[in-house]
Amino acid sequence: MQHVRRRGFRRIVPSVLASLLVAAGLIGGASPAQADPSDLCAQVGYNAGWRGQALELAVAVALAESSCNPSASNTTNNTPPSTDRGLWQINNYWHKEVDDACAYDPQCNANAAYRISNEGRNWEPWSTYVMGHHLRHMGEARAAVARLGSPGTGPAPLVYPVESGRVVSARSADGRLEVFAAGADGVHHAWQSQVNGGWSEWEKLGGPGNAQLAIAPNADGRLEAFAINGDVAKHRYQLAPSGAWSGWEDFGTGGSSITAGVNADGRIEVFASGPTGVFHRYQNAPNSGWSNWEPSGGGPAGSRVKMEKSSDGRLEVFALNGSVFQHQYQTAVNGGWSPWEDFGGGGHDVTVDHNADGRLEVFASGPVGVFHRYQTSPTSWSGWEPTRGPANARLSSDRSPDGRVEVFAINGDTAQHIWQKGVNAAYVDWDAFGTGGTDIAAATNADGRIEVFGTSRDGVHHKWQTGFSTWSEWAWVNSTSGPPIP
């Protein structure tokens, strides 16, 4: 699943492949010379549960990962040292629950990949998908699925919103992280010089000073960044996937906070809070122009606004100020919005993420620490539960390569984090993560490792996973500090 290189994979000889296909129930008396490795991935993928376009995508990922060789293995460039195994290259470090016997069994490997990918909705743990290497195999994958009779339909992968705040980070189409930080003199930008690798120097972009930021991918893979302060809203976008950026363009008047997400049909939707509530604006078509700003029907004034996506593809928005916390959601995929609903008392900040099974997790900070609420089903929520943690902290969250949610909190005195004990499970106690700061953002590298950015009056630091529970030390993003962010 991480840094897979196809050279070195053993090609399946026709007689062995035919035996595997017979065992999978795909062929009976077909000539072994007619067997194709993609047929094996198509059959076991279908048996696992993928259908239609979701099955085509799954087969393409397997072709990019292993050439659909069930004996394929890879150790090159894996951090920490580990082995990617079988058809979908299930890593033995990040997925210890999948033993070798299962990983090298075609059907068991497919079943594990189906579970890890949330039934095909989340392919982010596979670096070949993140970097688009699967695209060159889509024709071969479609042909293999067609030989099964193009069975049924399946879900398209979900594009989950990126955390918003004074510092934001997202991956370009080629898998490199890009980071934006909002200082008093405008927005600053740095990017990885190679996938999972080192960083450029900071560049100064201008734009709104002391802004709140959001970022989202267009349907064609181009990132689009948004910045808002009390006077103005601006946006800029990549001119080509992973390419250069436009200049700043007007996006509206000022506000307090901004967040962005992607509809199931690829249109970006943006929400921003202001002194009279929450407003939104959306693309009229994928990669296209924008609607005017429209009222959202209320929402807390001057609130922190964050967005997530339900497992069925509907966007959900959460907004919190010092006295009110409210929530609204799309009533249908790509559709209209519910009225705002009370979600609890007010607080300082909020972060929202999703479990491996798609259920949403919400964390909110306040004067006595961090509280937690989570979906118990697609339409119901737990009550608020205390987790302790830093008071009045800024929050961020992301998922480890095995699908566990990790939450990061920072205030002026301390940085701390918690993580799930297992996939879809309860959380450990808060653990030290560094000294204090002003804001925090988490993102995932192309190989699935979380990278965290912390801001302070000195500049922007980052820290990254080196294992399940091991992290690098804090360091500058490159040789310069970046903008101070009070």
UniProtKB/TrEMBL annotation:
Residues 164-479 form the PLL-like beta propeller domain. Keywords: Signal. Residues 42-128 form the Transglycosylase SLT domain. Residues 1-35 form the signal peptide. InterPro entries: Lysozyme-like_dom_sf (IPR023346), PLL-like_beta-prop (IPR058502), SLT_3 (IPR043992). Residues 379-399 are annotated as: Disordered. This is Transglycosylase SLT domain-containing protein. It comes from Streptomyces luteosporeus.
